Structure formats: C-alpha cells, structure tokens
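Materials and Methods. Structural model of FMN-binding negative transcriptional regulator. The 199-residue sequence of FMN-binding negative transcriptional regulator from Qipengyuania pelagi was retrieved and submitted for structure prediction as follows.
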Amino acid sequence: MHPNPLFRSEDRAGMAALVDTIGFGMIFAQTPTGPRVVHTPLVMSGEGRVRFHVSRANALAGHLDGASALAVINGPDGYISPRWYADRDTVPTWDYVALELEGPVRPLGAEELEDFLHTLIARSEARLDGEPWLAEETSAANWTRLLRGIVGFEMAVKEWRPTYKLSQKNSEADRARIADGLIAAGNRALAEAMAAVPA
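The predicted structure was written out as tokens:
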C-alpha cells in the first residue's frame, strides 16, 4: 500500500462499508505451483470477517483452507492532470481508493454457504430497479447442481491496510478544480470519494 500515512485510515466501519459497497475483489494466496488469484464477490460477515466463494475447479480452491490470504478491494481511481492545478509546474499522478485485507481462511459449511449466497443475492438485487429475482425461482435440482460447483470461504481479517489517495496534499482550491475536472471527464465516483475525505 502507499507509504504516506496521510492516505491511511483507522475507520474499520468505513472499510467494512467499502467492502460491501464495492462487493467484489481479489483473493491472493500461495499454492505449490506459485501464487494464484481469484476474482470473487465479497460480503462482510460480522466483525472482521469477509466471505466469498470460488469455483470448485479454480486453481486456488484446494489451497485456501487454513491458508493466510490477501484480499484486495479496489474503489474508484483515475488520472489526475496537472492542468487542474493552479501551478502546472508539476507532474500527473493517479488518485485511488484501495483496501487490502489479510488473514487466515476457513471453508464455509453447507448452511453458511447457503446463507452467504442468499445475502449476496438479496444485496445485489436490491441495487437494481424493478422487481427482484428470488433464489426460490431456481428449481431445487438446478440450485443443488450449481451449488456443488462452488466452495465458500471466510477470511478472519487480522490486517486492514487501506489507501485513500485523494489529492489530500493539494490545496482546497486545487482539490475543488481536480474534482471539477474529474466530473467533466466522467469520473464522478472519484470526485465524490474526494469530497468524503477531508484534506
């Protein structure tokens, strides 16, 4: 993560909310044939735990039980142009929000995996307009068949390493110009992240 402490936070509730808001990330772990990564939906589960699932056929699936793993969640990011500064005698940079979570992983039991999937579906459907799709619309036979193809896991987070690099080193006037530039460039999400983090 970025070494500058200005871009760090100790707000665990905010970090957990970031995981659930983004809802997707990468899980990295070591295997006998080298490091591997899986891209997966993520759901916070109680204090300091994050749940996810992988395809049973994934190269990482058989190596996660008991492993120490790293989860990476990426928030909004974007190029910051020197044209947005009062003094253009500088260089471009990249602003971003990212979170690393590290900890041991255990497999989910059958009921825990079902609970995780129903939570994930309900959360994701609630973000869409219109009448939600319900898991009960899948036949029991199809649900069971598809469920056999995945494995669920839970990471007990021991290390939280956030980076909120959002032009905090710049003046308030420059930050306002940067936000305006980002919005004009179509990156409202990064501009909103900037507004949420004080300089």
